[in-house]
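Project outcomes to date are best conveyed with an example. Our students and postdoctoral researchers have been running inverse folding experiments weekly, and each run begins with a structure described purely in tokens. The record below, which covers 127 residues, was selected by the lab manager from last quarter's runs and is presented without edits.
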């Protein structure tokens, strides 16, 4: 495992109906849903460390703090950026920030993940 603070990733998206609070069921309006914003941020954390993990390893989410600051209607381009800010053994802490095409901060927060052996992790889930 060659993980060190400073690893980054970007994940661009365009808000589609499937991404909206109305469609996901987290609200009644056709804007980017908070759970979808979180999913994008988590996907970016996975992307940031993917090629730095040993074969057979993956990471799993354990903690999230998210502030959803601005609405993003259909068609809005949103870019989620993450940076690995702390490595404590197998525990990884990321900061993330999402911006729209106008440069407004859509959301920000932190995500913690833990590096696990994929096979052992899955074996424990079937007990």
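After processing, the design step wrote out the following sequence:
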């Amino acid at each position: 495992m060659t993980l060190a603070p400073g690893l980054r990733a970007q994940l661009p998206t365009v808000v589609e109906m499937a991404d909206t609070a109305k469609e996901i069921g987290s609200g009644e309006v056709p804007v980017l849903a908070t759970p979808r914003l979180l999913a994008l941020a988590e996907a970016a954390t996975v992307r940031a460390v993917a090629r730095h993990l040993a074969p057979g390893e993956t990471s799993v989410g354990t903690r999230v703090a998210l502030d959803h600051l601005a609405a993003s209607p259909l068609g809005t381009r949103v870019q989620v950026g993450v940076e690995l800010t702390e490595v404590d053994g197998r525990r990884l802490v990321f900061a993330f920030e999402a911006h729209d095409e106008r440069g407004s901060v859509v959301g920000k927060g932190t995500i913690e993940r833990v590096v696990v052996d994929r096979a052992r992790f899955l074996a424990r889930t079937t007990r």
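The radius of gyration is 16 Å. The mean pLDDT is 96. The training component of this project remains on track.
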